[in-house]
Specification:
The complex is a heterodimer of chains A (294) and B (260). With 294 residues, chain A is mainly alpha-helical. Chain A has helices spanning 10-16, 18-39, 68-76, 83-99, 103-107, 111-125, 137-152, 156-160, 162-172, 178-191, 195-200, 202-211, 230-234, 243-249, 262-266; strands at 43-44, 47-48, 50-52, 56-59, 63-66, 216-220, 251-252, 272-276. With 260 residues, chain B is of the alpha+beta class. The chains are: A mainly alpha (294), B alpha+beta (260).
């Protein structure tokens, strides 16, 4: 398989990695805000800066934040929650929709650092997939999470979530939860490429569904594209980069896109760029006469 | 066409089977976790076990709000479902803050904000192991009594007469209707392993049952219908302080004079 040309200079390398670096800064920055508030007493205007964790939090002691998927599961158990957590879930939902929906996965989820590391390592080691499951499995897991919440009376995914366990381990030091994180690492490394994020994670599935209404998306300029296919190889979500469809719509509009920016950074023609999704489906350019690799 | 349909049906069946398989494992995991660690002590105002487990977002804001570092979030190593807050009194008891910051911090209502008087919290119940309690051996320890925030109500000291020519012992006694389960007593207990422990009331408390009538506690004659008795006799009321040291009973105590 032809690989994308390696950048010659260090500066070019940094430019190529600009989104990867920004994502790590965002991911660790989010963690640091939570950690600093919990352990070093960080405040803003005399109030705790960001108290809680990704499940539910409070910004500056006033703005409630909550994971809408967690709240959905808790509602499925039949428990009416306080309005604070409803408002928090609405704020977070609208916020991530503005940023594109599944942007959460690539820019805030702490587990993404682990799975990206696994993906990098497995590529280095040249490991092959041990089994093949459809990427749509995650929607079945999502449905199961809601169904089991109804059946068991507790938020089903929150109880087994390696994301929550990792986050709590890092912020509150409940370290034994890292066992589940190790499980995800091994799954992604030894069993299936992007096994967790790309196939199983119901939180990712939730944001995928929400992401269909996302605002910030990757725009595609079919006219300048040379169909080299580098973007498709770089993309962790193979279903997302359908360039025929993107050529028609001018935007990568699949909900499963995490806005990770790998394709934008690697494209030698700069045909891909972050932008606002067009409000109406305008045909940006005529559909290509030849098919794109997809 | 028929082959396509057959394949579609087969795929659907396979998918359903896999989902059912995974679902049952998942269900089992949750059910097991939900029943694990029934002894875990929860923050003040926590809803009953299953409701608390359902409504808690595992966000840890109660942990952050606690000024004493009492609360922790459970991980896979025990203390029930991962992420639920708990505390271990021997490590750090609940200080019973009058403003109850942990309850105020809870965004979901898993910790009930209607709890405004910390003395009404029921986190657990202190239980004394008389065999290993210094006071019960005859020493004037009484540390648990002295540190109890509801001293005299939740823990009181009862004189316990012994045989002639031996002095009485003074023993701590817990009233379940007043004990909040804060665990200050367990933390302060000077024995190597605490002789007073905070436990979940459901794990240690019995219930007499409505069909027993303790005749000497009711003014009505035994011949009268049992309906006069309270439906469920709370065991705590049997050891209310006023009854332990009977001061010249004004009313006839009933037929059972042997209990005098």
């Amino acid at each position: 398989m032809r690989r994308a040309a390696k950048p010659a200079t260090a500066v070019a390398r940094l430019v190529r990695l600009r989104f990867a670096i920004a994502r790590r800064v965002a991911q660790f920055g989010t963690l640091l805000l939570f950690f600093g508030t919990a352990h070093w007493g960080w405040t803003i205007a005399g109030r705790p800066l960001l108290q809680g964790n990704l499940s539910a939090a409070s910004l500056a002691g006033t703005v409630p934040l909550a994971d809408p998927f967690a709240v959905l599961q808790m509602l499925a158990t039949g428990h009416l929650l306080l309005p604070e957590v409803w408002i928090g879930a609405a704020i977070v939902l609208v916020g991530w929709l503005m940023l594109g929906g599944r942007t959460f996965c690539a820019w805030a989820c702490p587990l993404n650092v682990v799975t990206d590391a696994a993906a990098w390592l497995r590529e280095r080691l040249g490991l092959r997939d041990l089994l093949n499951i459809p990427p749509t499995t995650r929607y079945a897991v999502l449905a199961l999470a809601i169904g089991l919440s109804v059946l068991t009376g507790v938020a089903a995914f929150e109880w087994v979530s390696p994301i929550g366990m990792l986050h709590r381990a890092l912020i509150y030091g409940s370290l034994f939860g890292l066992v589940a994180v190790a499980g995800v690492l091994l799954l992604d490394l030894a069993v299936l490429r992007h096994g967790w994020c790309g196939h199983l994670c119901p939180l990712g599935a939730f944001w995928s569904l929400a992401g269909r209404a996302g605002v910030v998306k990757v725009r595609f300029d079919a006219a300048s594209c040379t169909r080299c296919g580098d973007c498709v190889k770089a993309c962790p979500e193979p279903r997302v980069l359908n360039l025929n469809r993107a050529g028609e719509r001018g935007v990568i509009d699949g909900g499963e896109c995490t806005n990770c920016g790998r394709c934008v950074a690697i494209c030698p023609e700069e045909s891909l760029s972050f932008g606002i999704r067009p409000l109406t489906r305008v045909r940006v350019c005529p559909p290509p006469s030849r098919g794109f690799p997809s | 066409m028929a082959v396509d349909r057959r394949r579609f049906l087969a795929r659907t069946l396979q998918g359903t089977a896999v989902a059912a398989c995974g679902g049952s494992v998942w269900y089992g995991l949750i059910a097991q976790q939900a029943e694990a660690a029934p002894h875990a002590l929860r923050p003040p105002g926590a809803a009953p076990a299953r409701d608390f487990a359902a409504a808690c977002a595992k966000c840890g804001r109660c942990v952050a709000a606690c000024p004493y570092g009492t609360l922790r979030l459970a991980d896979l190593a025990g203390h029930g479902a991962t992420g639920l807050p708990y505390f271990e009194p021997r490590a750090e008891p609940c200080a019973m803050c009058p403003d109850i910051p942990c309850v105020k911090a809870c965004p979901t209502g898993a910790l009930d904000r209607r709890l405004t008087d910390i003395a009404k919290a029921r986190m657990g119940l202190a239980v004394i192991d008389a065999e290993n309690c210094l006071s019960w051996q005859g020493l004037r320890c009484e540390v648990c009594y002295r540190v109890c925030p509801l001293k005299g109500t939740a823990i009181r000291i009862d004189p316990h007469p012994r045989q002639i020519s031996k002095h009485a012992v003074f023993v701590p006694v817990v009233s379940s209707d007043a004990c909040t389960g804060c665990g200050l007593c367990e933390k302060a207990c000077p024995t190597e392993v605490a002789a007073v422990r905070v436990l979940q009331p459901a794990l240690v408390q019995g219930r007499i049952g409505a069909h027993y009538r303790l005749g000497w506690k009711h003014e009505s004659a035994p011949s009268e219908p049992a309906a006069a008795a309270p439906a469920t006799a709370a065991p705590a009321t049997t050891i209310a302080p006023s009854q332990s040291v009977p001061a010249a009973p004004a009313k006839a105590p009933g037929v059972d004079y042997l209990n005098q």
